[in-house]
Amino acid sequence: MSAYNNAPKHALTIYTEINHTRTILSGLEELLNNLQISSRRRKELIQVDHVLAALFDGVLLFSELESLVIRLGEVNVKRTVYIRAQWARHEEDLSRYVSRLVSFKVCMGLMLSKLRW
Fold first, then answer.
1. How far apart are CA 41 and CA 49, in angstroms?
2. Nearest Cα to 25, choosing from 90, 81, 105, 113?
3. Is the dihedral of CA 43, 28, 51, 101 positive or negative?
4. By C-alpha distance, which of 10, 111, 7, 117 is closest to 57?
5. What is the pLDDT of the chain when averaged over all its residues?
6. pLDDT tens readout for residues 17-36
7. Side-chain half-sphere of 67: how many Cα atoms within 13 Å?
8. How does DSSP assign the chain, residue by residue?
9. Percentage of the chain surpassing pLDDT 90?
């Protein structure tokens, strides 16, 4: 029952994580477009295959989470009982996605900070 009652708060957390991830991906895109500006020494701290592997995993994760969130629909206090129940039913899956998304953001954030140093 608490998952049902907390569905709006949980949804807000997930939407926030999705928006933060979009911001990081935009920053990474901007940085990759201007890679020649970063110093050679900083670029050598990160191997391209590590960035690509992390980015590939993050994009897949983001896509899966976004797809699930879209299917569940927007939840708020005034929405239907069914939508809140759907969010509550998927609470464990959503929590796993958010945990993985936070790990991705930390990884990408570290890589970005090394390149922007």
1. 17
2. 105
3. positive
4. 111
5. 77
6. 888 888 877 877 777 777 66
7. 6
8. -HHHHTHHHHHHHHHHHHHHHHHHHHHHHHHHHTGGGS-HHHHHTS-HHHHHHHHHHHHHHHHHHHHHHHHH----TTS-HHHHHHHHHTHHHHHHHHHHHHHHHHHHHHHHHHHH-
9. 1
